[in-house]
Structures are given as C-alpha cells and as structure tokens.
Amino acid sequence: MAEINSLGYVGLGVSDLDQWQWFASEILGLQVGQRDAQGLSLRMDEHQQRIFLEENSIDDLLVAGWQFKTERALEEYVAELRDKGVEVSVVPAELLQRRKVEKAYACQDPNGFSHEFFFGPHVAELRNPFRSKVLKGGFVCGELGIGHILPFAKAGKGEQTLSFYRDVLKLRVSDYIREEIMPGMLVDATFFHTASGRHHSIATAENPMATKTLNHFMLQVEDLDDVGLAYDRTVKAGIPVALELGHHPNDRMFSFYARTPSGFNFEIGWGGVVIDENDWEVRSYSQMSDWGHKRNQIV
Fold first, then answer.
1. Which of the two residues, 1 and 288, has the higher pLDDT score?
2. Separation CA 119–CA 127 (nearest Å)
3. How far apart are CA 71 and CA 83, in angstroms?
4. pTM score, two decimals?
5. Is the dihedral of CA 174, 178, 179, 182 positive or negative?
6. How confident is the model at residue 299 (pLDDT cuts 50, 70, 90)?
7. What is the mean pLDDT of residues 200-208?
8. What is the pLDDT of residues 135-184, one digit of tens each?
9. What is the extent of the structural domain holding 156?
10. Residue 116 domain flag
11. Disulfide-capable partner of 44 in 82, 106, 139, 216 (CB 3.0 to 4.6 Å)?
C-alpha cells in the first residue's frame, strides 16, 4: 500500500515579499533560490526549493507538498484517493515548473488549503550547495522532509479534519496533547507522522478563535547552538516571541516560537524524535511543554 514519505515542501501566501526575503535569510537561515514577479523560492538543503512564497494578501498557508519516492507509489496513492471519493486534479506543467518537481496531483483540505502529492524533486547542481548566511550547521531535512506544520481545524471541522488526515491521507497518529493553556481554553492536538518517521510532519487542533489557518511551521537545525543563535537574532530584530525557549514532552524538541512577517508563527528546534514503528507507543500528554516555553500574550 502506497503512503506518503515526507512533507517535501510548503507554500505560503504572503503580502510582503521584501520583508519575507530578509526574514527568511537573516533570521531563519534559509537560502533564497530565485525571485520573480510571482514569488520567492527558498532552500534548506540540496533541493532547489523547500518553501515557496507567493505574493498574496492571505498571509497564510497555501499548500502542503507531500513527497513519494517513486512515480509508481504516487500513482497508486492517487488511485486510492480517487477510490475513496476524493477529487484529485493533475498539477499542470506550468505549476510543476514553479514547484520544481516532475509530477504532482492536488486535492483540497477541509480547512481551505491544498495538499499536493509529488515525486521527482529538482536538486541543485553540485557547484551550488546549500549555503546559509547565519547558521552554524544546517537543517535536519533530506529524507525527513522540511519539518512540520500545524494548521488549525476550523470551528466544527475538528473530527472531519482528523478523519481526513488519518483515514484519507493515511497519515499515522504519533500521539496527542490535551492541555488547558489558560482558563477556558483547551488545546486538543493530534500529531501525525509519515513513513519517514519524523515525529510529526503535520499536527492539528480545532480553534474557533483562530484568524489564520496556519498556527506555525517548524524548521529543525542540526546544531543545538543554532536554536540559541536564532533566538538571539529574533530578539535583537524586535520580532515578537510567542513561546520562549523550552522543551516538548512528545517529540522531545528543544525550541522557541516567534512571529513571522505574515502573523503566524515559526518554530526553530533541535533534537526531535524519529519514530521507529517497531517500538513506538502512542500516548496522550497533559502538557504542551515539560519545561520552558513561557507563553507571551501575542498568540
């Protein structure tokens, strides 16, 4: 049975490309691939593109791009989706060029963004390796994909969203966190992983008060120092910190969260778990963080 290997790319609609270009390279440590009238391409590793930005006033998540290792696996998976009654469209050649992949299909999420399923990512030439202006090391990417995203489920669509990710997309449940983060506000989050084993490539929780679909995206660094250095760059630049340095009990990530130019958050982390299905136990946790992650009142 075909299944998703990893979260291969993410597409964001942003209203200020100039600000994002500075932010992506000087704060996050990404490398600008190319920019044109339609948007901006960002690199994390040997892939020509891991994150793409399109000029769009939505300032939110547009696309989650799911990678398959072979064309055969992709075709089998898409056939399964159609058998389940999912409306799946072929991504046209013009968009394939912008996605920098060989073949892709797309369907809609219950919460308004697109899922794209692809194989054959375009890689950079050997003479053009990934370079960051600010990172001491690099990103944990490659086989594990870009990191993770947490899109909210719209009011009343929590169960539908969970069923879509688990039963339709066939993502595997990693664990759950249910915590009252402030009086009357319960976070009930479900975390999903792919065949690659990264603890979670996507997580979701229903939030009726959310003004954006995307709560945050996470980028994992190879060197612990790069979390602290990114935190210092963020504070020095006057970027609002949403959650200060801390540690999650489920994926065991040391990280912090802060605000992007589009209003949703980013997380920079180190030390995340890679799941071994042979000995993994799905658990339910009662706290988002076992230490740190002091919450500032901007989220």
1. 288
2. 24
3. 18
4. 0.97
5. positive
6. very low
7. 94
8. 999 999 999 999 999 999 999 999 999 999 999 999 999 999 999 877 77
9. 142-292
10. yes
11. 139
46 — pLDDT class (breaks 50, 70, 90): very high
Sequential DSSP letters for the chain: -----EEEEEEEEES-HHHHHHHIIIII--EEEEE-SSEEEEESSSBS-SEEEEE-TT-EEEEEEEE-SSHHHHHHHHHHHHHTT---EEPPHHHHHHHTEEEEEEEE-TTS-EEEEEEEE-B--TTS----SS-SS-BS-GGG-S-EEEEPBPTT-HHHHHHIIIIIS-PEEEEEEEEEEETTEEEEEEEEE-TT-BS-SEEE-B-TT-SSSEEEEEEEBSSTHHHHHHHHHHHHTTPPEEEEEEE-TTT--EEEEEE-TTSSEEEEEE---B--TTT----EES-S-SEE-PBPTT-
Query: For residue range 264-287, what is the model confidence (pLDDT) as tens digits?
Result: 999 999 999 999 999 999 999 999
Quote the CA–CA distance of 95 and 166 in Å, as a whole number: 27
Task: Round to the nearest angstrom and report the end-to-end CA distance of the chain.
Answer: 40
* Residue 114: C-alpha distances to residues 47, 60, 88, 110 (Å): 21, 12, 11, 9
**CATH classification of the domain holding 109:** 3.10.180.10
Tokens read off for 108: 């809609």
- Nearest by Cα to 174 from 217, 142, 204: 204
Looking at the fold, whether 232 and 156 belong to one and the same domain comes out as yes
Domain count, the chain: 2
20 shares its domain with 156: no
When pLDDT is averaged across residues 189-217 and rounded to a whole number, the result is 96
Backbone φ/ψ region at 221: left (φ over 0), alpha (ψ -120 to 50), beta: beta
Place of tokens 């249910």: 178
Amino acid 217: pLDDT: 98
Q: How far is it, in rounded angstroms, from Cα 3 to Cα 6?
A: 9
